[in-house]
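Supplementary Methods S3. Complex input for the zinc ion-bound model.
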Amino acid sequence: MTPDAQPTPQTPPTPPTAAPAARPHAQPTPQAAQAPAASSLTAQKLRNAIISGNIPDMIESIMQYALDKGASDIHIEPNRTVVRMRVRVDGVLQIIVEYPHNLHPGVVSKIKIMSNLKIDESRIPQDGRISTFIGETEVDLRVSTLPTVNGEKVVMRVLDKSKKIPTLDQLGITGRNLQRFMAALAEPNGIILTSGPTGSGKTTTMYSSMTVLNTPERNVMTFEDPIENQMEGLNQSQIRPHINYTFAAGLRTALRQDPDVIMVGEIRDRETIDIAIEAALTGHLVLSTIHTNSAVQTITRILNMKVPDFLLSAAINLIIAQRLARRLCPHCKVAAPPSEEGKKIIQKAFEHFKPYPGFDMGLLNDPVFYGPKQGGCPQCEGKGYKGRCGIYEILTMDQKMKASILEGLPAYELHRIAQEQGMITLEQDGIIKALDGDTSLEEVYKLVKKKQTPNATTNTSMSNMAGFTPSVRGTDDPAQQPQDDFGDMSAEEAMKMLYG
Ligand SMILES: [Zn+2]
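Predicted complex, serialized as structure tokens:
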């Protein structure tokens, strides 16, 4: 389960603590082995609760721990010999504690009671919700149970209601990207789409847009599944597909509710995009997300849904593609000069780049990059990374782009034209953020590049490496659409490519 997490603006470091973990991690990673023990007061409280068999304290402590760490999910999973508790922080799972099986039935029952699930049903999966206060913080947890061979596994997705919505520039949308985004948000009508894979922070970008749009003069309606943050002033509605209250049904209802701005959780089908276009063309601003990999691929996907090109180009104002990269720990990052080959790859990425004031192209001749320190430091708990930062590609539907779509130009042409019109690609924005020392090059390439396979012999240009389909109009069979042609490169492969 990888939720749409949000980039973390620089957060103050957690104070390091000295007490070693009572139970060593079952499978320590090389980094974790060298790192100081990840133990805070809460982790100690959790271990004490396990030792004394105090189940309510165990559950409260793991929730508190997840909240302290800004974790997105808690996993409680029975293995053959022990039950382990893990949390997902910055997109990566880490083991917190392990406890003996004899405590597990009590833990599962307590969580089921808290989330109104059937305690005596352990043969089928169940879904529920916990709304509670942990200390002063109001938290919602989405609970899912699953029968496994070793017992019931519980996953809780943490929705911290007190979490402040970051502004667009706190997300890492800055400079020309921010100007373009703000211009689109100021339009009275049109569609703004955010694209990216699961867990790339699309929902957060939508919420951050609301910090601009949520004013007393506007009727803002949202249709979400789930409602992750409640914002004062919005009309937020929870979608329930199992009773036919779908995104499309929500959108249709919205049009009868005198809206100015409509946010729809996701566009997945023709019906939803059709109503979104109708809403946009009748004077409303529509924001939504779509599961594609790049701005241009979003155009391809919608055309493949058989939406006529003239409607698409008339209705859509802005397309964002995004990724979340791990942020380098500012306390221990180390300089990492790329190889000559690596430099060439980076320079090539800026081939069609349109420079903007404040960006020094000369930086690319002898670029300085940073990487994580092996073993990290106490501030990042030995990981070398702490928090995340967004990487963005923002395409504006200007006259030139509209004309190019109507001409039926192939996707790689659209990608080039968009750059000439000022779009900063994901790869370029990632490199710019790596030049700023926010993240590492291998992190960027892991997220934005496809691994080159020996079979991919047709063309070695970078746009081809990015895996675009040869033509805007491709097949409409979703199975034949490129689903994940970004990011199948591992950090190791990226390291090899860039550093030799
Ligand atoms: Zn560090």
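The radius of gyration is 24 Å. Confidence is low (pLDDT under 50) at residues 10-39, 454-484.
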